[in-house]
Amino acid sequence: MNPTSSGELHIRYELDLLPAAPLLLLFRYHYSGTIDNMYEMSSQTEKDIRNITNLVEIENKSILELGCGTGRITFALAERVQEVVAIDIDTKAIEKARQRNVNENVTFRVENIENFDLGRKFEIILSIGVGYMYLRDLPNAIKNISRHLEEDGVFLLICSSPDAEYQKVVDLLVEENVRSLSFYKQFEKILSSHFTFEKTILKERLTFSQFEDIVSCFQRELKEEYQKELKKPQIQQLRDYFQGRNKLSVEDDSQAYICRNNVT
Length: 264
Ligand SMILES: C[S@@+](CC[C@H](N)C(=O)[O-])C[C@H]1O[C@@H](n2cnc3c(N)ncnc32)[C@H](O)[C@@H]1O
Prior knowledge:
The chain is of the alpha/beta class. The chain has a single domain (3-197, 209-259), classed as 3-Layer(aba) Sandwich (Rossmann fold), CATH 3.40.50.150. It contains 12 helices and 9 strands. The termini are far apart.
């Protein structure tokens, strides 16, 4: 049965996923090393590169990547583009990215999207999975991005869709003021003060092969302060949820904004 064909069934499905939400929240918002593992397990990088290249022409272009983390997208793009300048606010992530880097046309910098100034413009600006809802000064961030884009350049922003099952479950747990649906309405308003944009939905599912894979990710990568999360009752609930299942598959659609500078 198609879950979206019946409202009632759809709601039950979301609630059924509820025990998984605290763990998925940790995946998404903490430590990029953990995020790396999630991406590896779900072949996310291949999907992201396919999405990017379907939406924008990147061959031989100058690229600015915002919130690059440890560089998985950066490295996958390096051979095809003229250069990538990749920025992230997280010093540790940038250190790790620099250690991994073997490309002469790639530069990593510790910068904050809200106030960075590279003193130059780029043909393409990419932003994949950056949590704009957590920025302190969103209007300034968008203005900053706009002034780093060439007049005929494209800013491609891919983020979670607030309509996805995954995000709806997360929304049940986060504070009212960051609920994604209301945030993205406000976000689009701010975006439109500097950009003209088209929006498209990218269908995705996150699939983990088994519960133990997810737990081992945490044991390998989590800082000590998060280890205690593994003992919380929700984790037992999550384990119960997995009993008798050999897969976790969550609809995790993304939305892509293809933005061009407003003509002034
Ligand atoms: C979910 S991770 C995605 C990383 C990378 N884009 C990828 O897809 O692998 C979000 C990244 O955005 C970065 N970030 C969050 N706020 C930022 C800010 N204000 N300035 C720069 N980077 C930021 C985080 O440090 C983190 O590395």
